[in-house]
Design a protein that fits this description.
Length: 471
């Protein structure tokens, strides 16, 4: 009512309404709308629910008058649809550089002229899934830009390469194996032998190599060569097993390229997998149906949240902290800040070869949200297409608007027993008072994996022969 009256006053002040008309309109009673036609909203979600109900109830679904209660949050759904649509239109309009493809608007215009076949979807597509990690409730699901034009659900049916959003599973396998994220590695050219083929030589996105760095920095900076080297050390089978433990059901072949996300995944499964990072190591299976009742209100079926312990609380905390670094100072930092989302969050950007798939999977303590963009027929989106550049801004704007309408998310609380040490990130040793402040960070460790020695490079006497100082 206050907003309506403000608009009426502005119309009056602009001379569009007389004072008498303005007062009359402000006196007009306001009542809740009886409008209940939400056609065109959540169509992909509704169809996904229908498919699950059809598998469970068969023909009874259509003739028994069943009442179905779902997990959908209409506000989140509308915000997810709007955020995705707005960003895709901005990309097509050239706001991120030249877009060399047919835009959605051009496609619709051509279709009206009879030049294209409906359903071919040659335009840039996207998908969004928002889940609650505690319950598994899917609060929003967007499977594409236009359900009437293409009913293919990219959130639940599309197999897409995960790109760098797969890397946390590689690092999680390493943490499980006892690797501390303070360990120093080298971002350098790598050549991997391939049977009966030329050696595989993965590159970083920027085609540069940054040299010595910690595993932590390698993940939040998303360095491909380090992820491959680490995956080779941990072992492909361990990484495949890690992906399965996180709930990925697609085939992950035990080849070196999987360490940088060459395997195909479902977007819904990736979002569900990240609930383990948001949830202290417990993965929650996605739910879209709460219960089904008959005409008389008797419950015929009721969902029960299912959770699977994936990591110990200490392992999960180490992974959570490094994924928060992606937002604090990594590949998503500038986009999340520019989008105005300031609550504690973690996540991972993802970009595949030639920019054919771009991702951002992000989470707070009470929501996990994933967003993907790409063409149905995998095609390079544009020059300099990355998840941090194209997707993370839309994710941030969406989450900002979601939390404008709900309580702020609680921050995470470290599990008892986890260690917090000052580390010189350039050397991997415990920091001394002589280490450059720019290199000193606070880092969490699972007991027994923390460095025992002080930094031998930065000390009162300079280099001290690598012996360090006593713990």
């Amino acid at each position: 009512m206050a907003r309506r009256n403000l608009v009426i006053n502005l119309l009056r002040d602009a001379g569009k309404l007389s004072p008498a008309s303005a007062e009359a309109w402000k006196a007009y009673p306001i009542s809740l709308s009886s409008h209940s036609d939400y056609s065109g909203v959540a169509d992909y979600f509704v169809e996904y629910v229908r498919q699950q109900l059809d598998a469970r109830f068969g023909a009874d679904l259509y003739r028994s008058g069943l009442r179905v209660f779902t997990t959908l949050d209409l506000d989140m759904q509308l915000l997810a649809e709007r955020s995705l649509s707005t960003q895709l239109e901005a990309i097509e309009a050239g706001q991120y550089g030249r877009f060399p493809h047919t835009s959605f608007r051009d496609y619709l215009r051509s279709r009206q002229d009879g030049d294209m076949v409906p359903g071919m979807s040659p335009y840039l597509q996207g998908a969004v899934v928002i889940m609650e990690p505690k319950t598994g409730y899917v609060r929003a699901l967007v499977g594409g830009r236009d359900f009437e034009d293409s009913k293919f659900n990219r959130a639940s049916q599309a197999l897409r390469q995960a790109g760098s959003t797969f890397k946390p599973f590689v690092y999680s396998a390493a943490v499980r194996a006892g690797y501390p994220l303070s360990e120093i590695v080298v971002d350098e050219p790598i050549s991997v032998p391939v049977l009966e083929q030329p050696n595989w030589e993965p590159q970083n996105y920027d085609n540069l190599f940054e040299g010595r760095m910690s595993l932590r920095r390698a993940l939040y900076r998303s360095r491909n060569t380090v992820a491959v080297s680490l995956g080779l050390r941990v072992g492909e089978e361990a990484v495949v097993g890690e992906a399965a433990a996180f709930g990925l059901t697609t085939r992950i072949p035990p080849y070196p390229a999987i360490h940088i996300g060459a395997a195909d995944v479902y977007i819904l499964e990736m979002v569900a997998a990240y609930t383990a990072f948001a949830n202290g190591g417990t993965r929650t299976l996605p739910l879209v149906i709460l219960r089904v009742e008959d005409r008389a209100g008797n419950i015929l079926w009721q969902a029960q949240p299912e959770q699977v312990r994936v990591l110990t609380s200490e392992q999960a905390w180490v992974m959570l902290d490094v994924l928060r670094d992606v937002v604090r100072r990594g590949t998503a930092a500038s986009a999340i800040a520019a989008g105005g989302f300031g609550y504690p969050s973690g996540g991972k950007t993802g970009t595949t070869n030639d920019g054919k798939d771009v991702w951002y999977l992000g989470f707070t303590s009470d929501l996990v949200a994933g967003m993907w963009m790409g063409f149905d027929n995998p095609t390079k989106i544009m020059g300099n297409a990355t998840g941090g550049r194209l997707v993370a801004p839309a994710w941030a704007a969406m989450m900002r608007d979601i939390y404008a309408r709900r309580r702020p998310p609680p921050d995470w609380v470290a599990p008892p027993g986890i260690l917090l040490e000052q580390i010189d990130e350039s050397t991997g040793f415990r920091a001394t008072p002589f280490c450059p402040l720019s290199d000193v960070i606070l880092q969490y460790f699972i007991p027994g994996t923390e460095p025992q020695l002080f930094c031998p490079i930065h000390s009162r006497g300079g280099l001290i022969g690598g012996t360090g100082l006593p713990h």
